[in-house]
Amino acid sequence: MADSTTMSRPPLDPNEIPEDSSAGVVAAYIGEDMSRIIMLRVSAFAGAVAIVAGLFSQSAPAGLKAACIASGVVGLAVLLAAQLFRLRRSRQWVVIFTVLLVCGSMLLAVFLNLR
């Protein structure tokens, strides 16, 4: 059983959910965890596509190609580090959306330079 101090703060990890939680609380944590995993994969895919687009784009300037490759590599490394070092979920969301935004904007810039 969880005491009153456990219930006063939200758990940082889904494994720390108190045993006396309602089904709705457990479902909310499961849904958030699944959506975070899906968005992590989408963000990693955007980073990988940014690397490939930077490597194989022939019409983009060299600086844009280098920036696209660098953003993809750094983005994938940051996503991996966020999972390995078990950052708080809120920080993982920030990392996921930042990588998605940066890599997505690099991809958009490369695709706009296609002629």
Question: Can you characterise this structure?
Answer:
This protein is mainly α and 115 residues long. The chain has 4 helices and no strands. The radius of gyration is 19 Å and the shape is elongated. The mean pLDDT is 84.
Ordered list of secondary-structure elements with their pairings:
Layout: H1 4-8, H2 23-56, H3 62-84, H4 89-112
Helix pairs in contact: 2-3, 2-4, 3-4
Summarize the structure.
With 115 residues, the protein is an all-alpha fold.
Identify the notable features of this structure and list them briefly.
mainly alpha; elongated
* Tally of strands: 0
Main beta-sheet annotation: none
Specify Rg, calculated over alpha carbons. 19 Å
Low-confidence stretches: none
What is the share of helical residues? over 70%
Shape: elongated
Count of helices? Answer: 4
Rounded average pLDDT:
84
Summing up helix and strand content along with how strands pair, one would put the structural category as mainly alpha
End-to-end C-alpha gap: 64 Å
How much of the sequence is in beta strands? under 5%
Helix/strand order: HHHH
